[in-house]
């Protein structure tokens, strides 16, 4: 038996601050679910990096990064050009060539404006601190520092762009791209199932038949499926989803990326070697098999070769080829000496013994079979043996 106690009507409502804290906690949890998309050369963009399967977004950031890097390198060239000494004629300066028409060369620095002119004017008006700052910005050290910063920044940006370009063009298999594509497709199909089970709100959505224009019921499975598909397509067409992919998607770490890439290369090399072996086997089989015309050519060539050899043997002078008058029957493991060896003293006995060991030959040529027979006596023989033993013992006692 259970007792149900209704809630007290005077129970206080949740405070507004608590509700705001819950909302803030929920938003923070949602924000924590977003993971920065991986990349090789666009890491400096941080959370603005698009999904790995969004190639248009990746190429856009690569283009912007390349343009910024080229701009920094171009600034070095412009800055160096502004520091070059300009060659001018004296006649171009009226204050120097007022009473004569002589000509001569004069090297002057180009006029600078902007911050340097502002600092100069401020220094004439009595601004000592501003004059020091202007002197600092006009010093050669500041110029060298600016050149180094421009050079390092431009080189870094261009190298990172080259690295990302290599990933997009050279790699035929990108684990990050395949993972992002599979997660995007999985979210699309999960959204269809979710929207199908949620159903259709008849107050917000009205479905009409295309043939007669009548309003159809929203509880029909075909209608629910079509509406779920449209809602999933609208969700996938969202600009944020198209750029970043599913927001709760967590990409694989860089170490796993390298492991999958290495596994792909190993499998590719294995399949390539297997394909090469098959091609070589096919080529060998094609070379071994010959057509009937080739076989006839080989038969004709063999016949001609045999005829030439026969003619050469027939035309050889007598005595040029030694012919043995009798055939010698050699043992299986006997000692074979040179035919010109006639004297026994010229034979090295130790060498012959080491090469042709007669005891080893005897062991190899001899086949022995050994059988072990058990010594078991029959019952009648055993009884007779016992009687003989008793008789011997009685004779010993009598003695």
Tags for this model:
two-stranded antiparallel ribbon, mainly alpha, extended, 59% helix, 399 residues, single chain, membrane, mitochondrion, 3% strand
Task: Explain what this protein looks like in three dimensions.
The protein has 399 residues and is mainly alpha-helical. Among the domains are: 176-252, no CATH class; 255-294. It contains 13 helices and four strands. Helix 2 packs antiparallel against helix 5 (140-169), helix 3 runs antiparallel to helix 4 and helix 6 packs antiparallel against helix 7.
Write the layout of secondary structure elements.
Elements: H1 16-32, H2 55-82, E1 86-89, E2 105-108, H3 115-124, H4 128-137, H5 140-169, H6 175-198, E3 207-208, E4 215-216, H7 221-236, H8 239-244, H9 254-288, H10 292-314, H11 349-355, H12 358-365, H13 379-398
Antiparallel strand pairs: 1-2, 3-4
Subcellular location: Mitochondrion inner membrane
InterPro entries: i-AAA_Mgr1
Pfam family, one: Mgr1
Strand content: under 5%
Rg from Cα: 52 Å
| Through-space gap between termini | 113 Å
Task: Figure out the total of helices.
Answer: 13
Shape: extended
- Most strands sheet: 2 strands, antiparallel
**Average pLDDT metric:** 76
Number of strands: 4
Binned, the helix content reads 55-70%
User: Low-confidence parts lasting 5 or more residues at pLDDT below 50?
Assistant: 1-7, 9-14, 113-123
SSE string, helices as H and strands as E: HHEEHHHHEEHHHHHHH
**Helix-and-strand structural type:** mainly alpha
Q: State the strand order across the main sheet.
A: 1-2
């Amino acid at each position: 038996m259970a007792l149900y106690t209704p809630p007290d009507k005077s129970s206080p409502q949740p405070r507004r601050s608590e509700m705001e804290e819950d909302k803030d906690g929920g938003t923070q949890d949602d924000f924590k679910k977003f993971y920065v998309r991986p990349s090789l050369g666009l890491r400096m963009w941080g959370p603005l990096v698009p999904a790995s399967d969004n190639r248009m977004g990746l190429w856009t950031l690569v283009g912007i990064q390349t343009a910024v890097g080229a701009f920094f390198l171009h600034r070095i060239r412009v800055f160096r050009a502004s520091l070059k000494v300009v060659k001018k004629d004296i006649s171009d300066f009226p204050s120097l060539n007022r009473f004569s028409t002589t000509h001569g060369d004069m090297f002057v620095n180009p006029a600078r404006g902007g911050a340097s002119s502002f600092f100069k004017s401020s220094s004439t008006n009595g601004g000592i601190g501003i004059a020091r700052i202007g002197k600092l910005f006009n010093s050669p050290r500041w110029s060298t520092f600016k050149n180094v910063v421009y050079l390092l920044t431009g080189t870094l940006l261009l190298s990172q762009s080259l690295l990302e370009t290599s990933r997009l063009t050279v790699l035929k298999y990108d684990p990050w791209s395949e993972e992002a594509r599979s997660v995007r497709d999985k979210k699309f199909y999960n959204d269809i199932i979710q929207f199908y089970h949620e159903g259709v709100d008849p107050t917000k959505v009205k479905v009409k038949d295309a043939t007669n224009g009548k309003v159809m019921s929203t509880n029909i499975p075909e209608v629910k499926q079509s509406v779920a598909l449209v809602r999933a397509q609208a969700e996938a067409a969202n600009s944020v989803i198209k750029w970043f992919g599913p927001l709760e998607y967590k990409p694989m770490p860089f170490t796993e990326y390298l492991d999958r890439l290495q596994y792909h290369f190993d499998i590719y090399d294995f399949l390539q070697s297997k394909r090469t072996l098959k091609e070589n086997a096919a080529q060998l089989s094609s070379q071994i098999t010959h057509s009937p015309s080739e076989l006839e050519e080989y038969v004709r060539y063999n016949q001609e070769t045999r005829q030439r050899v026969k003619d050469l043997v027939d035309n050889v002078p007598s005595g040029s080829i030694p012919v043995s008058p009798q055939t010698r029957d050699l043992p299986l493991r006997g000692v074979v000496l040179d035919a010109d060896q006639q004297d026994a003293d010229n034979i090295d006995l130790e060498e012959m013994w080491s090469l042709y060991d007669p005891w080893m030959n005897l062991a190899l040529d001899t086949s022995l079979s050994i059988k072990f027979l058990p010594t078991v006596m029959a019952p009648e023989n055993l009884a007779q043996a016992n009687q003989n033993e008793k008789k011997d013992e009685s004779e010993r006692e009598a003695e």
